[in-house]
Specification:
- Keywords: Signal.
- This protein has one domain.
- The protein has twelve helices and nine strands.
- By secondary structure, it is an alpha+beta fold.
- It is 33% helix and 18% strand.
- The structure holds 2-acetamido-2-deoxy-beta-D-glucopyranose (7 copies).
- Residues 71, 75, 108, 110, 112 line the site of one 2-acetamido-2-deoxy-beta-D-glucopyranose.
């Protein structure tokens, strides 16, 4: 065959398979390993969105000890599972995105975010306003831009004098930005309303390992010996450590209400944060700030077995 002929064949094949509405996206999601690595009825994020999700949750031990706590944060079983993992995946998605669905693990029959009844032991997704939520029926992949969605979550001085920690977690959104996604079972491929499919599982690491890497990076960026005053070993539940964590990440200015917009550039840079978050995926060796991969192939996933590539061969 002539070169011209070969080229022609290649072009035709590529043209036939490339649907311009499809795109491969790399996403991260946090959950209990036994719930499976495929995000069916789950939320996930791009890298900056994952940094935001994690940074917000650092405040929980302080928040959840007060009367101002929000149950949607404090009862989120995904965050507290002792076998929590972070999975890095590639999904092929239809980019005609829909509304972002708030998907959460239903622990006891009541969804902590909406108060709606849900099936215990399964993931449950709600759509609509926070105040008037309903179970999602959409099939599109949901997408939310953090900079836009959290733009109105600004902290006031009235809030600051009773719950200063609320300012720390809201200001983080303006620093990280990022995207959150939701992938519902109704849109899974193959299927009549197919909008997304798993392409690959790149790496799964334990949340504990990732936390250690991230906490080390933040402690090393502390230039005012803030953490030294808290004592060692680190106690991630203490107000001292949590306060130092946000002060190092956001800079002192970033901990206040209505911060001068320049606070986005004080504290740690977004590049340094992203570096700390990606190390566990880029390296296996703890000496490099890496995390060993978790072998998820042998885990029995209650509702994911038939969705994982190669799983049909090992489940019989
Ligand atoms: C996504 O990646 C898979 C595996 O590399 C590839 O087969 C597929 O064509 C890609 N999809 C798009 C839309 O690029
Ligand atoms: C992760 O850390 C938590 C809290 O320290 C602990 O309860 C849990 O057993 C650890 N999980 C693993 C898999 O090491
Ligand atoms: C179930 O969880 C919800 C939300 O976290 C909580 O408000 C409720 O009290 C719990 N119900 C029971 C029966 O434990
Ligand atoms: C934020 O507030 C503005 C002004 O009230 C409003 O137009 C906008 O829709 C709000 N954004 C969100 C995401 O709620
Ligand atoms: C989110 O929206 C903001 C404001 O419109 C835009 O500047 C930013 O690029 C968007 N972020 C992403 C990740 O698309
Ligand atoms: C697919 O979408 C159509 C139209 O929204 C709906 O009637 C149908 O029930 C959906 N099928 C599945 C399997 O979700
Ligand atoms: C960590 O801090 C919390 C909150 O101050 C405290 O209750 C707990 O006892 C501390 N843990 C250790 C091991 O010191």
């Amino acid at each position: 065959m002539s070169r011209g002929g070969l080229l022609f064949v290649v072009v035709v094949v590529a043209a036939a398979s490339a649907d311009p509405r499809l795109m491969n996206i790399t996403i991260y999601h946090v959950n209990s390993l036994e719930d499976g690595v495929v995000p069916v009825n789950m939320d996930s994020s791009n890298l900056a969105g994952d940094v935001f999700f994690d940074l917000r949750s650092i405040v929980l031990p302080v928040e959840c000890g007060t009367q101002y706590a929000w149950t949607g944060d404090c009862d989120n079983a995904e965050l507290t599972a002792s076998d929590a993992v972070i999975s890095k995946l590639v999904l092929e998605v239809d980019t005609r995105y829909g509304e972002y669905a708030r998907c959460n693990y239903c622990d006891n029959g009541t969804d902590p975010f909406s108060g709606l009844a849900c099936q215990a032991g399964e993931y449950f997704c709600t759509c609509g306003d926070y105040m008037q939520s309903y179970q999602c029926t959409e099939t599109e992949v949901g997408k939310e831009n953090i900079s836009i969605a959290f733009a109105n979550f600004t902290c006031t001085w009235d809030t600051y004098v009773v719950a200063p920690w609320r300012c720390w977690s809201t200001n983080v959104a303006q620093k990280t930005g990022g995207l959150w996604y939701s992938t519902l079972s109704t849109g899974e491929c193959p299927g009549p309303n197919c909008t997304w499919r798993l392409v690959s599982v790149d790496k799964v690491v334990s949340k504990n390992c990732s936390n250690d890497v991230i906490f080390d990076a933040v402690e090393s960026a502390d230039q005012v010996a803030c953490f030294d005053a808290c004592g060692y070993p680190r106690n991630t539940s203490s107000a001292c450590w949590i306060g130092c964590f946000y002060q190092t990440v956001l800079g002192p200015e970033g901990m206040l209400p209505t911060p001068y917009p320049g606070f986005k550039h004080s504290g740690m840079s977004l590049d340094d944060l992203v570096d700390a978050w990606t190390r566990p995926f880029n390296f296996d060796d703890p000496a490099m700030g890496g995390c060993p991969p978790i072998d998820w192939h042998d885990v029995d996933f209650p509702f994911n077995n038939d969705r994982v590539p190669g799983a049909a061969d090992r489940i019989s």
